[in-house]
């Protein structure tokens, strides 16, 4: 498909509008969205053309290549509309050109395009009294293009036109009872126009069906006619006008007042297709469209992934991680891995592995990683010191560069709590200064005891965060914490996680927090903070009890809560501010073999 800049020598302003998930919005938010659309078209002084099209997009999903049809919406005007678009809060980009189709030949009732395909255009001739908002966009399920031309009519001309129509209706009301209803509607419109409460538009709607050969065109034509017949709308394929219909949207002109234009609402999508910077994660189970996720379009870059064991959590998390790494090849990647799950995929992802149980002198001394006051609090948690000793730690922490420095400063009672950290097995892990590569998995596999794991998790996270703070902000950093609930055993760890969740975006950190224990996210104050600060939430299958807890904490609908109980393996409820999708995560065959912890997938 080529692009053009001018039509009939008229300067055009072209905008591509980011759609919203209109179909799943609550009624009150749908009204707000429609109000934005009405504000735009009621502000225009010159004709506008709305183009809703489907374009092929070839996506790389892991090691697989897939071609899918992507809906896109353009607004074409003879006057600049940036001010109106900004005022309404719609997200848009300015396009240099509008879509154009290369026509090779016009036949009587169809077109032959230069790529060898065939196209046929229809124009709207009539509609029933009631149609749903965004009805025109629904036509894209059967066609390749929906074009809507809207020309505002000056108020005095609109009043004059409606006066004439009402006059004609009045003459027939005595003989035709149905005309009385039309008369009343006409008078209501006339009064609203007189009070300048609405506007009148002359509109034409044209659709285009495209196929590779005549048989396929006839089949698409039949499907379209069946679909429109069910809505009592009528379309005609005007002979000898096919080229003008496709290129310029020329069609039957119908009158619509402002409120009736709700059927033309075009900024609709039930799909998350965030291109060009998004990563393909899976398939929308309701529309079968791809789910393409761009972390940078969120209010923050935090992702909460919550699922019960066996729901596909491991494959889902690793697929997301792999796709992000591939999309952002210069990104820095850090994984905190309590169970060693990511060790086995480190070669596939080209990530360094650090085994905390096998290596010494990892440089995890709290004074190496945190400010003195924070280090003192963390040491108090690690050593399980009482409040008196904790005060001693805080009082003597300033100026210390290591736990040994603190040990030498505090009294004998406080020293008794630090003995294992300065002479025991932990001392070997805390000392030294090992180098952390730009992509690393810190694995705690083989570590025994939840408290010891929690301590090492926190210190590993501190080392990673120190590294992140030293890196350029412009470069994406991916921080993944598996089985994050283990960190909530220590209050200092919870506070540190809360800080990362709040500050991560400032450092361009994609923070992925994974847990299979919803109660630790919902009932723990730091867990709740992470959930509240996660602009992206991914819920896989959960138990009935867990689903009810998630429903209450995350404000899910009854339908969504029931979905959590019945999701198949690898399916999830994918939530952002603008989307609430049922998604099937789609690892490639190679990814599944490497990522899965289920023997049958190997």
From TrEMBL:
Membrane spanning stretches: none
AAA+ ATPase domain span: 299-544
Classification via InterPro entries: AAA+_ATPase (IPR003593), HerA_central (IPR002789), P-loop_NTPase (IPR027417), T4SS_component (IPR051162)
Pfam family, one: AAA_10
SUPFAM superfamilies assigned: P-loop containing nucleoside triphosphate hydrolases
Top-level taxon of the source organism: Archaea
Designated name of the protein: AAA+ ATPase domain-containing protein
Lineage: Archaea, Nitrososphaerota, Candidatus Nitrosotenuis
